[in-house]
Amino acid sequence: MEILDSAGFSGPVYRDELSRNDMRTRNVEALTQRAEMLRPIKRPVAERIAVASLRCLALTAVDLSSVLVAAAKRKATIHAVDTGEAYPPGGGIEDVQAAMLAWERGRRTGQTLAARKKAAEVNPKLVEERRERALNIALPLWGLPTAAITGPEIAKRAGISVASLITHLGPRRKAQKKRERNDLND
Length: 186
Prior knowledge:
Distance between the termini: 66 Å
Strand content: 5-15%
Number of strands: 3
Largest sheet: 3 strands, mixed
Low-confidence stretches: none
Number of domains: 2
Oligomer: single chain
Number of helices: 9
Shape: elongated
């Protein structure tokens, strides 16, 4: 609510509190306040629905498209404070696509923040030890030709993501070139 207040939006507030199970199962029926906010009306008055993020409005990208349709039927423009974007009722397919992309970016950002928070709570020494073990497994494989073993295969074998391998071992092509030079010199 503070985000909406600081952005200058005011008016009735609809807020659904979902259980962990409702979130996990994407239980749209649990969004009773949202259903109340989007219920059809007969008056032809343009409205404004302000949300901190599109992630607050829908549980899935498909659910978001249903929300956009319901808002359009109410002649309501949805304003997302985090992106500064507005999705008007007469918007075309480009607006729907933009909304879905913004929703997906918000979902990924939320996952990343949750994972970072969880990782920070774990013993940092333990995390470092796990990373070292994974990198020790991956290091000799990282310089091998891609035809011999792919990056995702190395990541799976080491138990670490390809992005983490690149972060800690550098670009794979660089390691492969170094190995090729060493093989030529031997």
